[in-house]
Amino acid sequence: MLLVASLLLGITGLCIGSFLTVLIIRIPQKESLLGRSHCRHCKKTIAWYDLFPLVSYFSLRGRCRTCDKKITSRYPIIEFLNAIIWISAGYSLIQRGFFDLTFLTFITIGFHCFSWSILLAAAWIDGDHYYLPDSLIIPLLLFCSAFSLLRLDQSFFNQWFGALEGFSLFFLIFAVTKGKGFGFGDVKLAVILGLLLGSQFILLGLFLGVLLASLYAIIRMLQGQKTMKDVIPFAPFLVSGTFLVFLFQGMLSTWLSPLF
């Protein structure tokens, strides 16, 4: 049963990942999300049989069928990463006991898989363009708010206390540094991450994210590719850190329970 669930989650994650590539490419360029997929070189519409996640890319050897120009490898990478996100998020929740075939269980698993998918797209855009698009962040914040009464993994109050913790910490840093520590997009992101992790784990997740960003900055400075004045896109690291905490939340709950 677990194998079947993982297979279904993986296939769904691949398909959603294919759509994420559209978001990641089109949103920064302010292109419509409604148009058919097309080659970025020759602009020819891509046929439906060339749109299968991963399979089409490798069957075409990473090239456009029409103009034979190279297709960026970010397409299969994003699709594969999103499949991993869906499988690992689903497995993490199943390990915590959410395995019964009820409506709210499906809602809880689907909510987390979809939310982390959108965060992957937002983090990738931040990594590329150094900004978090409101067209992704605001709808995701509304989505998380709307589902806060239906989720089984966190109580309503625990979610919103987590959101308050994330907002308070990051807004304080934003205000004190006048936007030089974190941008306001990071403040909104912290609210979403607080809703996802809840009050018990949000600070740990944000700390891990900042730690990962700091390690990245130190490595790049040692390589001579960054200076203290250079801007670091925090979203990829904040999302990565909080997602890792989410995956191991069951284990962490066991370890931390004597402290609370």
Question: How would you sum up this structure, described in words?
Answer:
The protein is an all-alpha fold and 260 residues long. The chain folds into two domains: 1-87, no CATH class; 96-260, no CATH class. The protein is built from ten helices and no strands.
Mean pLDDT: 90
What is the CA–CA distance across the termini? Answer: 35 Å
What's the β-strand tally? 0
State which percent range the strand residues make up: under 5%
- The value of Rg in angstroms is 19 Å
Provide the structure class.
mainly alpha
Low-confidence stretches: none
Number of helices: 10
Q: How would you sum up the global shape?
A: globular
Helical content band: 55-70%
Number of domains: 2
- Major sheet: size, sense and barrel closure? none
Reading the helices and strands in chain order gives: HHHHHHHHHH
Write the layout of secondary structure elements.
Blueprint: H1 2-26, H2 55-59, H3 74-95, H4 103-129, H5 134-146, H6 156-176, H7 184-197, H8 202-222, H9 235-247, H10 249-256
Helix pairs in contact: 1-3, 1-4, 3-4, 4-5, 4-9, 5-7, 6-7, 7-8, 7-9, 8-9
Tags for this entry?
260 residues, mainly alpha, 65% helix
Could you give a quick summary of the protein structure above?
This protein has 260 residues and is mainly α.
